[in-house]
Amino acid sequence: MTVYFIGAGPGAADLITVRGARLLAASPVCLYAGSLVPEELLAECPPDARLIDTANLDIEQITAELVRAHADGHDVARLHSGDPSVFSAVNEQMKRLDDAGIPYEVVPGVPAFAAAAAALKRELTVPTVGQTVILTRIAQRATAMPEGEDLATLGRSGALIVLHLAARYVDRVVEELTPHYGADCPTAVVAMASRPDEIILRGPLDSIAEQVKAAGVIRTAVIMVGRTLGAEQFRDSHLYAVGRDRGGF
């Protein structure tokens, strides 16, 4: 058997990859984060599949379910919201499977920041304006940030910064980034990206905290701060430039 860590995407059920959907439909056991993964996806599971909501399980209980499925010879679809490569808590699960000698594969998904950019109809990298995107979060009670990865330090780059799990702390975000980006820096917040109840907020950095509070956004949101969000005048990319020599490689 194999455990498949599948990126379920940001929320819309049809944003799962074809590979992810195929594996989900073939796995007799499915572990999913009930608070984050859309119920519509579970309809893709086999009719008699064992469905396990992990929202209230700890890592040892989750591991026990994976070990049990392995002992029964069953493939497992382990659904994670977004993409497993960032802020997914997949590492500790893979480590335990390594220790138990249980095989697994990782199937990428659409990350929340990509769904947010799509909702904003924005390319996050713009020629001559910004070519760097920083994905990060802020220190909370759950997990401290490593030294040198605080907002004050990261903000010095001036790069587009994308904050996950930070809507509750929007005042801190504004306070720490304003000295580096300026109060007028284009900012956006996208909550529940790709879902029917999607919320999009835009404005200068000094207005965004008030908007977030007025909209009641406290979770399942990304905050984006950077000049590329408001870029209107920029050079065309070299890839499709009219004067580009296309005779070589």
From TrEMBL:
Pathway: Cofactor biosynthesis; adenosylcobalamin biosynthesis. CDD domains: Precorrin-4_C11-MT. GO terms for biological process: cobalamin biosynthetic process; methylation. Its EC number is 2.1.1.133. It is an enzyme of class 2 (transferase). GO terms for molecular function: precorrin-4 C11-methyltransferase activity. Keywords: Cobalamin biosynthesis, Methyltransferase, S-adenosyl-L-methionine, Transferase. Residues 2-208 form the Tetrapyrrole methylase domain. PROSITE patterns: SUMT_1, SUMT_2. Belongs to the precorrin methyltransferase family. PANTHER family: COBALT-PRECORRIN-4 C(11)-METHYLTRANSFERASE, SIROHEME SYNTHASE-RELATED. This is Precorrin-4 C(11)-methyltransferase. It comes from Streptomyces arboris. The gene is cobM.
